[in-house]
């Protein structure tokens, strides 16, 4: 299968600190890859590097061509990124903000508005469509930004070429309903040959939806592969410094992760 | 419950399209209103002044058939004094407002204004230097300093911008935080130098310096207008062309880049066009404060932050407010004339504070 992203010994420095150290992996097209790791593990840096916005040592190819050789517009048509930066100093109308995602695409105004309307519907944003960004909660703004990224790629138009979506903690402000809603949309997106790389803290959400998991810790790649290979106590316990217990989901036969800090186990033992 | 069925492309989604339509109607309303107000202000600006107050002036000028109704002198006053002043006022107002809007987008801060890149203080230092040296140049070399003043000011603006730019540039394009900090230092240095130059100036130069640092359109004539016009238009058109990209910049530099903006070029171009526009404006009229800060802000209150809509509103509003301020400056102490910077600051400062309050107070209509 074709690799959409190919990383070869990628090192990224911030000052003298190595934020990413010698990362090598091949990410095949059509997968939903979930990026996990502790705070400061380098997840955001990896996403910005993959997106072509950071200086790096090593080789990084997107669709077989070096990321640095892609032009901004060209890249924006096949790759969208949702960053963690959510706050806005300026107030924009919700449809207006989503329409900005279509900047790189030359299309008639009517078609642009049509696309905006479609992605408003996909993200269930109808009730927010007449508000401006100053009137949105954190989670609502996050959903609007996700809609903007989906609109940028016209994510659910399956006739188009294979695309890449990079989402940096898109679920951090979402309630349970919208977490699942979003992950199902992302899965819908990858089901047609597209690729998504999603940084998430919730290991069980990762387990429910990921095809593959990329585990980072301290700027190093700990493991990358099918979720059942990576989401194991062997790899997770050292990263999160917490005891882990893995059991299959009662209905779904998917591994679920239970964390049990020593302190709680001791307390429990003393009560019994 | 989540529905994952995807709507057919043909379905007409009513709500969102009506948002775009109603927003465009709103913008159209404001644009039309501002054009009407600008016309009225133009008529007032042509009709009233220290040399006479008569609406027939404007009417007569517009209709050559009725030129006989006013004297040749009056006709000259209109075509040689008031008309170039009107044109200059509108252009400068539009340029100051638009460069303000661009600087705010560049800094992603609604409280920025073009002086953050050091351009106005650079111009002021050179202009004040020229005024202070005026008597010396006149007696030693027979050069009239006031003729050189606009060129000196423009050069000063560009030098200051280049210096700030040198300190703030990086391989990602100009770094906005450094730009602001170096700009602040530059402004402090500029004011110190102006103080120093004033300290060594004689009384008549001092008066001129004082007048110049508060701005005035009184020097307007066709020849200076014709010289500055290309620069002012270059700045206006250059920034106008970037309005869509600048809107994306509001979301953040990385975000704009990810949506397809060449962010490095964009930031450099904004700095260049702002420097050219403000440099030319300051060279012609001295320092007219507050316009670059307040007008974009007011425009955002009217039509939102998207520069696609905000920029035309901002340009018209800037032209209107400068014209109105100039008109007030001219008539309020006839036959003398107030520096226009005093008028814009006296009106601008309270408006600005009101806007700040509005922004900082939690809005009552929040959900």
List strands and helices in order, with pairings:
The complex is a heterodimer of chains A (272) and B (367).
Chain A: E1 3-14, E2 17-28, E3 32-37, H1 43-50, E4 57-62, E5 65-66, H2 72-78, E6 79-82, H3 94-100, H4 109-122, H5 138-153, E7 164-168, H6 176-190, E8 195-199, H7 203-209, E9 212-217, E10 220-226, H8 227-230, H9 233-240, E11 244-248, E12 255-259, H10 262-271
Parallel strand pairs in A: 3-8, 3-9, 6-7, 7-8
Antiparallel strand pairs in A: 1-2, 1-4, 4-5, 9-10, 11-12
Helix pairs in contact in A: 3-4, 3-5, 4-5
Chain B: H1 14-47, E1 48-49, E2 52-53, H2 55-62, H3 72-107, H4 119-141, H5 145-168, H6 176-199, H7 203-213, H8 222-241, H9 243-249, H10 253-258, H11 263-285, H12 291-303, H13 307-331, H14 340-360
Antiparallel strand pairs in B: 1-2
Helix pairs in contact in B: 1-2, 1-3, 1-13, 2-3, 3-8, 3-11, 3-12, 3-13, 4-5, 4-6, 4-7, 4-11, 5-6, 5-11, 8-11, 12-13, 12-14, 13-14
Describe this structure in words.
The complex is a heterodimer of chains A (272) and B (367). With 272 residues, chain A is an alpha/beta fold. Chain A has a single domain (3-271), classed as P-loop containing nucleotide triphosphate hydrolases (Rossmann fold), CATH 3.40.50.300. Chain A is 35% helix and 28% strand. Chain A has ten helices and twelve strands. A six-stranded mixed β-sheet of chain A has the order 6-7-8-3-9-10, with helices on both faces. Chain A has a four-stranded antiparallel β-sheet with strand order 2-1-4-5, with helices on one face. In chain A, helix 6 links the parallel strand 7 (164-168) and strand 8 (195-199). The N and C termini of chain A lie far apart (54 Å). Chain B has a two-stranded antiparallel sheet. Chain B contains 14 helices and two strands; from the N terminus they run H-E-E-H-H-H-H-H-H-H-H-H-H-H-H-H. Mean pLDDT of chain B is 84; it is low at 1-12 and 363-367. With 367 residues, chain B is mainly α. Chain B is 75% helix and 1% strand. Chain B has a single domain, classed as ABC transporter involved in vitamin B12 uptake, BtuC (Orthogonal Bundle). In chain B, strand 1 (48-49) and strand 2 (52-53) form a beta hairpin. Chains A and B meet through helix 2, strand 6, helix 3, helix 4 and helix 6 of A and helix 1, helix 9 and helix 10 of B.
């Amino acid at each position: 299968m074709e690799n959409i992203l190919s990383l070869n010994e990628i090192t990224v420095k911030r000052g003298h600190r190595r934020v990413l150290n010698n990362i090598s992996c091949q990410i095949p097209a059509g997968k939903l890859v979930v990026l996990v790791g502790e705070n400061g593990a380098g997840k955001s840096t990896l996403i910005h590097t993959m997106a072509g916005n950071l200086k790096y040592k090593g080789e990084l190819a997107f669709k077989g061509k070096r990321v640095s050789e892609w032009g901004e517009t060209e890249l924006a048509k096949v790759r969208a990124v949702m960053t963690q930066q959510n706050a806005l100093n300026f107030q924009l109308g919700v449809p207006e903000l989503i329409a900005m995602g279509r900047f790189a695409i030359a299309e008639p105004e009517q078609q642009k508005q049509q696309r905006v309307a479609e992605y408003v519907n996909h993200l269930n944003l109808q009730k927010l469509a007449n508000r401006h960004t100053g009137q949105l909660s954190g989670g609502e703004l996050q959903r609007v930004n996700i809609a903007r990224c989906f609109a940028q790629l016209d994510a659910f138009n399956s006739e188009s070429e294979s695309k890449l979506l990079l989402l940096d903690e898109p679920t951090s402000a979402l309630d349970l309903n919208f977490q699942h809603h979003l992950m199902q949309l992302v899965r819908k997106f990858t089901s047609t040959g597209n690729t998504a790389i999603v940084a998430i803290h919730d290991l069980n959400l990762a387990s429910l939806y990921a095809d593959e998991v990329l585990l980072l810790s301290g700027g190093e790649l700990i493991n990358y592969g099918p979720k059942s290979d990576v989401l194991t106590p062997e790899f997770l316990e050292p990263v999160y410094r917490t005891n882990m217990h893995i059991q299959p989901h009662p209905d779904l036969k998917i591994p679920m992760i239970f964390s049990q800090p020593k302190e709680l186990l001791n307390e429990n033992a003393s009560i019994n | 419950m989540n529905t994952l069925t995807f709507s057919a492309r043909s379905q007409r989604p009513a709500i969102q399209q009506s948002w775009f339509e109603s927003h465009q109607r709103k913008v159209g309303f404001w644009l039309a209103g501002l054009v009407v107000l600008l016309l009225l202000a133009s008529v007032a600006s042509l009709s009233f002044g220290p040399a006479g107050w008569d609406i027939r002036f404007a009417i007569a000028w517009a209709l050559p058939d009725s030129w006989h109704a006013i004297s040749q002198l009056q006709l000259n006053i209109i075509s040689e004094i008031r008309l170039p002043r009107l044109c200059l006022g509108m252009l400068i107002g539009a340029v100051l407002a638009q460069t303000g809007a661009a600087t705010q987008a560049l800094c992603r801060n609604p409280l920025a204004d073009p002086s953050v890149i050091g351009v106005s203080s650079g111009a002021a230092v050179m202009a004040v230097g020229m005024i202070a040296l005026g008597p010396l140049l006149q007696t030693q070399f027979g050069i009239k300093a006031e003729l050189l003043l606009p060129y000196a000011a423009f050069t000063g603006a560009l030098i200051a911008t280049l210096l700030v730019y040198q300190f703030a540039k990086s391989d990602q394009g100009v770094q906005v935080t450094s730009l602001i900090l170096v700009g602040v230092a530059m402004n402090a240095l500029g004011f110190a130098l102006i103080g120093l130059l004033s300290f060594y100036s004689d009384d008549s130069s001092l008066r001129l310096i004082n007048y110049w640092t508060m701005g005035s359109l009184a020097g307007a004539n066709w020849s200076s207008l014709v010289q500055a016009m290309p620069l002012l238009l270059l700045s206006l058109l250059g920034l106008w062309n970037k309005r869509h990209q600048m809107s994306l910049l509001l979301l953040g530099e990385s975000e704009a880049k990810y949506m397809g903006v060449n962010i490095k070029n964009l930031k450099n171009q904004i700095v260049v066009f702002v420097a050219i526009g403000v440099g030319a404006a300051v060279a012609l009229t001295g320092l007219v404060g507050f316009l670059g800060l307040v007008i974009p802000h007011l425009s955002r209150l009217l039509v939102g932050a998207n520069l696609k809509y905000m920029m035309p509103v901002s340009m018209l509003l800037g032209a209107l407010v400068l014209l109105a301020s100039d008109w007030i400056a001219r008539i309020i102490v006839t036959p003398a004339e107030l520096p226009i910077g005093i008028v814009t600051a006296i009106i601008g400062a309270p408006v600005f504070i009101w806007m700040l309050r509005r922004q900082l107070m939690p809005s009552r209509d929040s959900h």
